[in-house]
Amino acid sequence: ETGVTQTPRHLVMGMTNKKSLKCEQHLGHNAMYWYKQSAKKPLELMFVYSLEERVENNSVPSRFSPECPNSSHLFLHLHTLQPEDSALYLCASSPGLAGAYEQYFGPGTRLTVT
Amino acid sequence: AQSVTQLDSQVPVFEEAPVELRCNYSSSVSVYLFWYVQYPNQGLQLLLKYLSGSTLVESINGFEAEFNKSQTSFHLRKPSVHISDTAEYFCAVSAIVSNDYKLSFGAGTTVTVRA
């Protein structure tokens, strides 16, 4: 595998379910991000990790819980979601935390909450 | 905080015609500027970026963008598009401030190239 991978690619879950999204980067980067992408809206930054420490929690509801066990892996644990949480969830990584760095994105997980 | 406005939500264009995607930003500090492209069923990938130096930057596949500080713009152009350029294009900015790493994105412009 190369770049940034995400699993699953598609997920349908009920409002009472618990599920997790997984992201893995094979680039040796130190920073990882979760974004929410909704149609015709700017990407929303959710969480940022640098060297496995969370540095950003962008007013995200507690039904989203991130986990970064090491610098290559990032999880987003989901529970008691709402239909408005349906979106594409993108993971990204960058060499470090600096505005000049390019971010490398995974293909995303398309989440549908029923 | 920075904000980005992409002035066109959708741009239909014929193959081999030119295209321009408009991007304006707002910021109280100097910024880095980026264009990302998202092909169907894929994540975003960097198309080109302006960090410093020449205000005209180019990508390997024929796109170019020009940073205009007085107009706070970073419009993207390609003189002749291909069917394979059909995608969504995102303009993004980040502040040139230490400890500021956030990318602020526009809402995207969908380019549809027709034969």
- Helix-strand string of chain A: EEEEEEEEEEE
How large is the count of helical segments of chain B? Answer: 0
Round the Cα radius of gyration of chain B to an integer and report it.
14 Å
Largest sheet of chain B: 6 strands, mixed
Q: What is the 3D form of chain A? A: globular
Report, as a whole number of angstroms, the end-to-end distance of chain B: 41 Å
- Kindly report the average pLDDT value of chain B: 94
What's the overall average pLDDT of chain A, rounded? 93
* Strand-pairing-aware structural class of chain A: mainly beta
| Number of E-state strands of chain B | 12
Kindly estimate the percentage of residues of chain B that lie in beta strands according to DSSP: over 45%
List the uncertain runs of chain B: none
Structural class of chain B: mainly beta
What's the N-to-C terminus distance of chain A?
32 Å
Largest contact between chains: A-B, 25 and 28 residues
Q: Could you give a short description of this structure?
A:
The complex is a heterodimer of chains A (114) and B (115). By secondary structure, chain A is an all-beta fold. In chain A, 0% of the residues lie in helices and 56% in strands.
Topology:
The complex is a heterodimer of chains A (114) and B (115).
Chain A lengths: L3 E4 L2 E4 L4 E8 L5 E7 L6 E7 L2 E5 L6 E7 L2 E7 L7 E8 L9 E2 L3 E5 L1
Parallel strand pairs in A: 2-11
Antiparallel strand pairs in A: 1-3, 3-8, 4-5, 4-9, 5-6, 7-8, 9-10, 9-11
Chain B lengths: L2 E4 L3 E5 L4 E3 L1 E4 L4 E8 L5 E7 L5 E3 L5 E5 L4 E6 L8 E9 L8 E2 L3 E6 L1
Parallel strand pairs in B: 2-12
Antiparallel strand pairs in B: 1-4, 3-9, 5-6, 5-10, 7-8, 8-9, 10-11, 10-12
